[in-house]
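FIELD: query
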Amino acid sequence: MTGSPALPRGILATGSIVSVHSTVSPAGVSDSFVTAPLPELALDATGIPGDRHAGSTRAAGPREPWLPKGLSLRNDRQLSALSQEELALIAAGLKLPALDPGLIGANLVTQGIADLSRLPPGSHLAIGGNWSGQGRFDGHTLLRVEAYNRPCRGPGRKLAAAHGRPDLEFAFVTVARSLRGLVLSVAHPGVIRPGDAVVVIAPLLAP
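FIELD: result
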């Protein structure tokens, strides 16, 4: 991914928040990864309080086959971010009119950030305010990009059930490859709302 030449040095991209979601909804706390849209997300250092993925630590699992199962790790999967553009590509590949981001566990949906899924780990999403990458950040929330969120069959099963198409369970894994979005952790807590500006700060690399 390359940023626009017009962007300040160290800034990879700019965009905005389209929607925010959580497993905590007005109906209560879901025991599924499926998320519901909300007017805002109020984050603390553990992520979204009460959300299925909140916490300062998480247990090692299938993603870390080299570690003892259940080993306590820093929680690098507090939030999931998807892009409106990549969701449209997945929907087209699955021959669906649209893709509900909640069915695949989104917490944030962005627009305007090209190739969101390819942002390098160590990048930060600076959210809110009028900052454009020059001077000091005047927003309210800072999230760290931890990793690409590899597609799996769980979300595919939810899509299959929602659309009455069993083929989607496996098709999602294939079609969503390289488009599944990112997992994030909270670097500085704050409130995130639809319409908030997003500035992507490049990771600090050795010269």
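FIELD: remark
The domain at 11-201 is CATH 2.40.33.20 (M1 Pyruvate Kinase; Domain 3).
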